[in-house]
Amino acid sequence: MGLAQLDLFDQAMLLFAALVLFTSFVMLAQVRIVPLIHAFAWQGALLAVATALVAFVSKHPHLYLSAGLGFGLKALLIPWILHRLAVRLRIHHESESIKHPVLVLLGGAGLVVFSYYVTLPIVQLSELTTRNTIAVSQAVVLLGMLLMISRNKAVAQVIGFMSIENGLFFAAVVATYGMPMVVELGIAFDVLVAVVLFGVFFFQMRESIDSLDVNRLNRLREVDEALSEAEPRQ
Amino acid sequence: MIGWAMAAVQCLLFVATAPLFAGWIKRVKCRAQNRAAPSLFQPYRDLTKLLRKGVVLAYDASWIFRATPYVVFTTTVLAAAVVPLIALRLPTSAIADVIVLVGFLGLGRFFLALAGMDIGTAFGGMGSSREMMIGALAEPVLLMTVFTLAMSASTTNLSEAVSFTLHGGLVIRPSFLFALVGLMMVAVAETGRIPIDNPATHLELTMVHEAMILEYSGRYLALLEWASMIKLMVYFVLIANIFAPWGIASTTTPTTLALGVLAIALKLMLLGIVLVLWETVMAKMRLFRVPQYLGFAFLLSLLGMLTHVILESGGH
Predict the structure, then answer these.
(1) Using one digit for the tens of pLDDT, what is the confidence trace for B133-145?
(2) Which chain B residues touch A17 with a CB distance below 8 Å?
(3) A199: which residues sit within 8 A by CB, 6+ positions away?
């Protein structure tokens, strides 16, 4: 079945799914904190639009509710909390250096191919009009994981984690037209609590190791201090 | 026979109106930056002035230096002949597809880089090495966007591909959106516009294209300038007619042809304004950020191809 046989709303849904995938790549390429948060907010907004379109196409009105919930939570509230945290931690002008930016992006493209290959059997079993986007949702999950792996700063890792959750939510919407409302509300509340906890965690981390670089959590404090006292840095 | 005549007329029109398009961009840019704008026909005056002037050749110039303006001009005109401007299914578009078009432009670039190094001045060599770096990164992007298009239309022939989008009706294709943005980014890089190169600069350390043609004068310079104007128009006609082919003539009756001329003029005027806005908003990049810019363009074209396979082919 080609694209031309689908009606315009199906096509628009596919377009927004592609744009969600694109924002994942934008996050992967973005090294500065505040634009990264903005890209995450855009992903939430595009995801909400895609969900609303799925609701319209499949005539499942309860999906409008999850679209609205997703928009309010992932496009407005969580980015706002993260932005405020970044300002209060005074890291909103910082940028971190990725070691091989182009390699990371090409690795991301490889992950998209991989998720297409993995979901191919599922897609062939399914009869839904949204079946082709299952691969996209899988790719968003894997790209969020890649974002967490490739970054050292805690805030970027949290955004990667939230992006994984976006991918899971999208997978649920396109594969089974959404989860039961209780589950969805529970997950939404979970994510919100997670952000608040991460905020507390950032401050704790800053106080104890004076940095948000998670690599420094691996070092033993006494050994390092003893070392730095024994041979001072050049 | 009438087809060949039409093709010749279209190609002549392409070559003749390229300076007009450059003049339009210059004029809109002056307006956007609150400067007094030159006339629309100023590029023609510049070209005739240069054509009348004598040539000053360096003592060490070899035949490569003297042949390059003709090679560059010819390959660019041939490339322009392949691109459908106002009518589809002309015989010139049947003998060459889009890969040949990229090859023509690559050949011109190759000779221009050789000519830049031929005299042996420092600026020429610097410009050539920069141009080759940009070209090596930009050409894969151009080919990938073209392949994305070719996968949807099942052909690499430009005329067939344009008529595929023209007769397909309104279909939202995510892959075309990515290919469009990728192609626009690469067009800006290939034609030496602002974030990559500044066409108006003569500041030695930032020049790319101007550095290569620094030693040229008289009619040689006129041919090279004209070729770069045609190249700019080739890219923009390509963008306009692939992604918004509406109005292009499928038959060769006078009404449809007139409509085709009107449509392409409107589209080029709009695209010129978009280019000027982009150039006014962006600042020129450091040279070492160009690989990142083109890497992102490559990613876009790659995403275009992936979304075509994943989302548009139905998974069967």
Answers:
(1) 999 999 999 999 9
(2) 174, 311
(3) A81, A85
Residue B314: its pLDDT value, please? 55
Report the pLDDT value the prediction gives residue A191, as an integer from 0 to 100: 87
Residues in chain A: 234
Higher local confidence (pLDDT), B111 or B92: B111
A110 interfacial to chain B (CB closer than 8 Å): no
Residue where the block lists tokens 């390429």: A29
- Could you give the C-alpha distances from B136 to A230, B118, B129, B238, in angstroms and in order? 51, 20, 11, 20
User: Which of A11, A22, A112 is the closest to B172 by Cβ?
Assistant: A11
The pLDDT tens digits for A134-147 are: 999 999 999 999 99
Which one, of A190, A201, A192, A191, lies nearest residue A89 by Cα? A201
DSSP, res B170:
S
Give me the interface pTM, i.e. the ipTM.
0.83
From CA A154, how far away is CA A142, in angstroms rounded? 18
* All structural domains of chain A with their residue ranges: 3-230
Say whether A25 and B171 touch across the interface (CB within 8 A): no
Closest CA to B230 of B55, B40, B66, B11: B11
Residues 23-82 of chain A with CB under 8 A from chain B are: 25, 29
Å from B294 to nearest chain A CA? 10
Q: Do B312 and A17 touch (CB under 8 A)?
A: no
- Cβ neighbours of residue B138 closer than 8 Å, sequence gap 6 or more: B186, B189, B190, B294, B297
CB-based contact B86:B10 (threshold 8 Å): yes
Does the pLDDT value for residue A212 go beyond 50?
yes
pTM of the prediction?
Answer: 0.88
- What integer pLDDT is reported at residue B315 of this predicted model? 44
The pLDDT value recorded for residue B236 is 95
**The pair of three-digit structure tokens given for residue B86, joined into one six-digit string:** 């106002």
The answer to whether B169 contacts chain A (CB < 8 Å) is yes
Query: A229: distance to nearest CA of chain B, Å?
Result: 40
- Please check the confidence at residue A224 and state whether its pLDDT lies above 70: no
Cβ-Cβ contacts under 8 Å, B170 against chain A: 8
Q: Which of A11, A22, A132 sits opposite B303 (nearest CB)?
A: A22
By Cβ distance, the residue of A11, A109, A120 closest to B171 is: A11
If one compares A199 and B220, the residue with the highest pLDDT of the two is B220
Hey, what amino acid is at B124?
A: G
Which residues partner with B312 through β-bridges? none
State yes or no: pLDDT of A1 exceeds 60: no
Q: How far apart are CA B316 and CA B310, in angstroms?
A: 10
